[in-house]
Design goal:
Elements: E1 2-8, H1 20-33, E2 37-40, H2 50-66, E3 68-71, H3 83-89, E4 95-98, E5 104-108, H4 123-135, E6 141-145, H5 166-175, E7 180-183, E8 190-194, E9 197-201, E10 217-224, E11 227-234, E12 240-250, E13 255-262
Parallel strand pairs: 1-2, 2-3, 5-6, 6-7, 7-9
Antiparallel strand pairs: 1-10, 4-5, 8-9, 10-11, 11-12, 12-13
């Protein structure tokens, strides 16, 4: 398998620290990379207002003109009944993407709750996720994305806004052999590995609402046969830093992440 996936999050159209220059850089970089897939893991807007969504929709249209693009909502997107604009201008709140070569599948979930920063998946969506995961052959890689981080993120202060049902979700993910989880929300890039499952958090790609020495950034996932690597990409400079590299194989008819090497987080 040779695939390129770009994951970005926390675009925040309408936020005072949003940068048009960073947004333009991001589009140029995505076009240059020519990935097979783009995933936007929530928070396209800052307050869910219609004018923010109009700008966000134009941005998503530009991404979709480059390659296949999926978006899920974040907590900021559902403020002020913004989910109505989301559904009208962006699309579905959850999705299933099956790779045309049947190498991997991506499932997107909506973890947002109206007008609060906390999130949850909920019983109904959890059952839907189980059903979708059961349809995916074990020989395929399984990727799940939602906005709120599944695990705590270092260097983000007192822990808040983790998924309210993260334990139940963790059980579903590990029981069903999920290999990779993609999150956003905290504006801090991070990677954990639990039970042979990689959880990857994206920073903010287009704002300067940053913590410590982090930079505006997004993640690039590169799959090469029996290996894949994750690069952190600086939106301002285009500079890449290797976050993690992994060895994968089909073992007993199951796709397995069997070894990993992680670099420390921090600045790009």
């Amino acid at each position: 398998m040779r695939e390129r996936i770009i994951q970005m999050s926390d675009i925040h159209f309408g936020e005072k620290n949003f940068s048009v220059d960073l947004k333009n850089n991001l589009l140029v970089q995505v076009e240059h990379e020519n990935p097979d897939l783009v995933i936007v893991s929530g928070d396209l807007t800052n307050n869910g207002f219609s004018h923010e969504y109009e700008e966000a929709a134009a941005f998503v249209d530009e991404l979709r003109s480059i390659t296949k693009t999926y978006v899920i909502p974040g907590n900021h997107d559902v403020r002020n009944v913004g989910i109505l604009h989301y559904e009208d201008l962006i699309g579905n709140r959850k999705f299933v993407h099956m790779d045309k070569d049947e190498e991997y599948a991506v499932i997107g979930l909506d973890s947002s709750e109206p007008d609060i920063n906390d999130g949850q998946i909920g019983i109904d969506q959890m059952e839907w996720l189980k059903t979708q995961l059961e349809k995916i052959p074990d020989t395929m890689g399984k990727i799940v994305t939602f906005h709120h981080h599944l695990l705590p993120i270092p260097q983000t202060g007192r822990e808040r806004n983790i998924l309210l049902d993260s334990g139940d979700l963790m059980r579903v993910l590990t029981d069903n052999g999920v290999d990779l989880v993609l999150n956003g929300h905290k504006h801090v890039p991070n990677v954990w590995m639990v039970e042979k499952m990689v959880t990857l958090n994206s920073g903010t790609a287009t704002t300067r609402k940053l913590r410590g020495q982090t930079r505006p950034s997004y993640n690039q996932l590169a799959f090469e046969d029996e290996d894949f690597r994750v690069n952190l990409v600086d939106t301002e400079t285009g500079k890449k830093q290797l976050l993690g590299s992994y060895s994968v194989r089909v073992e007993n008819d199951e796709y397995v992440v069997c070894s990993a090497r992680h670099n420390s987080m921090g600045k790009v």
